[in-house]
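[Meeting: bench + compute handoff]

Bench side (C.D.) handed over the final construct sequence. Compute side (W.E.) agreed to return the predicted structure before the next meeting so the bench team could plan truncations. Sequence as handed over:
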Amino acid sequence: MSASLPRGRYLQDLPEYPFARLDAKRREMEGKGVQVIDLGIGDPSEATPQFIQDVLAGALPRSSGYPRVAGVQGLRQSAAGWLKRRFGVDLDPDQDILTVNGSKEAIHSLPLALVSAARPLALVPVPAYPVYALGVSAAGGEVIRLPLHDENGYLPDLDAVPDEIWAKAAMLWINYPHNPTGATATPAFLAKAVARCRQYGVLLASDEAYADIYFGDRPPGALEYGTENVLAFHTLSKRSAMAGYRTGFMAGDSRLIADLLRMRPGLGVATPRFVQEAATAAWNDDAHASEQRKIYAERKDRALSALIQAGYDVTPPQGGLFIWMRVPPDMTSEVFAMRCLEQGVVVLPGSALDPKGEGFVRISLTAPTSVLEEALARLAKL
């Protein structure tokens, strides 16, 4: 027998898949003939708008060379135009914007450009999208978790972070509208976060995947407070129902954009040219994004009404694709998720996102409205 293969530190530290028991329960219910409805993922079910599909099809080449990491200028210009319309900011498409294959790969790889022996720490408010912490771990860094609570609007307490932590931090992650709670950031918080990061030489990494999905006033973005020490992430996955296209962009500090242009060719993450053409059309059009927002607002209202009427304790989201719901006091998040599966509904235990998510479940609004209503009716039976 051959000797065992080595296992890198990243794999050694990688948390176990949290849904093994839930998956087993799902297979059990499906084996009994139950049609399981999945409200655990944030995968949009709407069709990608036809005009975007048409642009993609028309851009398919007879032959195709390797695309450049920087992306085509037309896409960067359309991204800059959207940033101007959405946030009122003026960015240089050649110096301040870099295309990515969706936010996820860029979020995971960003710490490679920042984490060092002198700056090994990353501040991550929790509960949160798990990829923030995974990327830091892959780069050899250490995650400092900042707890989020309902009483402070799910905003991290930056004043509670000691000076010595700030001095060793490479980056602060924020995500508003927030996954999973649906909270939005206040202008005062964003201004303070940007100022604090500049004070200590830290990057403010702002994941704004849900910037165009909001249910009241348009929430602000980090770039409204300048580009220095700021990098914002934007994607078409939710805004334009283009999750499978894998396209987005980073925008912000030109010094970091230049460094990422040096680093990213080695990662092999250049976006295909025909996808960039479709993305250009999507960023140039706001009407379809407005229609998407109306769809999610209607589903949000229906979900809140049904869950509150059934007696559940829910946090009304200000944006995003999810309902953050407290589980009954005598259950853990996973136990309640199992109970939901017995009714044929998959929800995400908050503990799967982070231990600070214990006591909650996340319910996705991405299922078609009729399917969502059936799932809500099943949850009411609990």
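W.E. noted at the follow-up: Residues 74 and 280 are 7 Å apart (CA to CA). C.D. will use this when planning the next construct.
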